[in-house]
Amino acid sequence: MPELPEVEALAHHLREHAVGRTVARVDVVALNVLKTVNPSWTELAGRAVTGAHRHGKHLDLDCDGLHLVVHLARAGWLRWADTLGAAPPKPGRGPLALRVHLGPPGQGPGFDLTEAGTQKRLAVWIVRNPAEVPGIARLGPDALAVSRDELAELLAGRTERIKTVLTDQSVLAGVGNAYSDEILHAARLSPYATAGRLSADAVTALHDALGSVLRDAVDRSVGQNAARLKGEKRSGLKVHGRTGLPCPVCGDTVREVSFAGRSFQYCPTCQTGGKPLADRRLSRLLK
């Protein structure tokens, strides 16, 4: 799933390449991606692109006051092309969901929104105010903007695992499964630690890791071609997606806890005192 660094990089790419151009046409290939009816996608045509922004993990293309807001979900992506074909794409079973022409079709650039797999969760809203998008309206403070004391307040009294809290967009916006693994590894915290019981030193370590991991990922991602962002993300990960490989910090074997449809990774030596975490059906360390 694209998270804060990748979405920020895509917004940067659109600011560099789309702002100042005019929407010539929007082709909706999969109607199910549209979550709004009014305004219609046809109203984007003829509008100049005046900005590109990020709200948590939502991408926002400002077309002179009408916003095309995208949530890429787990398998969605934005693919930029210097020239897009003129013929409207036909609906089908392929990954293409929506196409935006930013110049005369067949002559100008633009981008496709695509989604791999069978679980179609890519979502697009066309709104006059991004706050009309339910997911944006519920967002907590941005993960790159929260102070140490604000983070402490967000965690105070919470009984959930810290892994769960970090990925709750209503608490903290922008962090998903992959970067929460990286942040907890950098902070040397167990994913199963209770959020509201972290010591003052642990909260400080978590805040430091939050900033350093995300800023490093943004620095590596911004300026990359959109097609290279996924590979750039993978190359910077130390524990996420590295089950069975040695931890680059201590050399211990990276372990995994699996859930239905997803998993998280961690290093026992760095994060759990050397003990492997229990199966997902348990909430304690193996004895």
Automatic annotation (TrEMBL):
Domain of life (superkingdom): Bacteria
Coiled-coil residues: none
Biological processes, Gene Ontology terms: base-excision repair
A Pfam family the protein falls into: zf-FPG_IleRS
Cofactor: Zn(2+)
Annotated PROSITE patterns: FPG_CAT, ZF_FPG_1, ZF_FPG_2
Residues of the Formamidopyrimidine-DNA glycosylase catalytic domain: 2-107
Residue ranges of every copy of the FPG-type domain listed in the record: 238-272
Catalytic activity: 2'-deoxyribonucleotide-(2'-deoxyribose 5'-phosphate)-2'-deoxyribonucleotide-DNA = a 3'-end 2'-deoxyribonucleotide-(2,3-dehydro-2,3-deoxyribose 5'-phosphate)-DNA + a 5'-end 5'-phospho-2'-deoxyribonucleoside-DNA + H(+); Hydrolysis of DNA containing ring-opened 7-methylguanine residues, releasing 2,6-diamino-4-hydroxy-5-(N-methyl)formamidopyrimidine
Record key words, sorted: DNA damage, DNA repair, DNA-binding, Glycosidase, Hydrolase, Lyase, Metal-binding, Multifunctional enzyme, Zinc, Zinc-finger
InterPro entries named among the record's database cross-references: DNA_glyclase_Znf_dom_DNA_BS, FPG_cat, FPG_N, H2TH_FPG, Ribosomal_uS13-like_H2TH, Znf_DNA_glyclase/AP_lyase, Znf_FPG/IleRS
A GO molecular-function annotation: class I DNA-(apurinic or apyrimidinic site) endonuclease activity
Family: Belongs to the FPG family.
Official protein name in the record: Formamidopyrimidine-DNA glycosylase
Species of provenance: Gandjariella thermophila
